[in-house]
Amino acid sequence: MELTAAFTLRGVRQVKAGITVVDGIELAIPYGEIVALVGPSGAGKTSLLRLLNRLDDPVCGEILYRARPITQYPVQELRRKVGFVFQTPVMFPGTVRDNLHVALALGGEPGQDADTRIAEALALAELDHALCDREGDRLSGGQKQRVNIARALLTSPEVLLMDEPTSALDPETADRLMETTRRLSRERHLTVVMVTHRLSEARRTSDRTIVLERGRVVASGSTADVFGSTANPMLRAFLDAEK
After folding, report:
1. Residue 68 belongs to what H/E stretch?
2. What is the DSSP letter of 155?
3. 3-class DSSP assignment, residue 79
């Protein structure tokens, strides 16, 4: 199983401000799938996500990326392979093109084909190329989030981590962004691990769902199974809350 897993977590525990936020997690996250992390507020979803590209390190336990401990990867190399899209889009000063050049520079390959690669990333993120010369702070929330996805794609990642990427978007824009995410996963065999508080989004977009509560995995499996056949009454009430 580990050969097909993007990430394997063994006894992973994380503590913040004296509170255990991730509590002894054992988990395999498959390669090439969209995996949704859901659960009540404070369940440890974002804390778990941040461990996967070493924005934070666990206090104990081991995390493997493609069967190799993630501590063995140079951090910059790991973050090229494992991109992160934050809940609030981060825009650097300057135009959209300036923002995307930052990613090329971080990837160590600005190169002569920079404009071609930028055009490809914009197309993948379904952004109009005419936005290239627009100042980043003049974009809508949905456009900013797509620039963040395009920027992440420019390092040719194998995994995209997304922390509530649609939380600030209206439902229609959110749906379109999730459709883009699903298409990218299929076309590029991209593993996507996304935190979402919108259960309908998890149900519609993900292949697999992991339910966290108080830092522990309380359900994990195919999205259809998790949403369809969970018998635990408290978990059932949570999963049915958005119906």
Report:
1. strand 68-69
2. T
3. helix
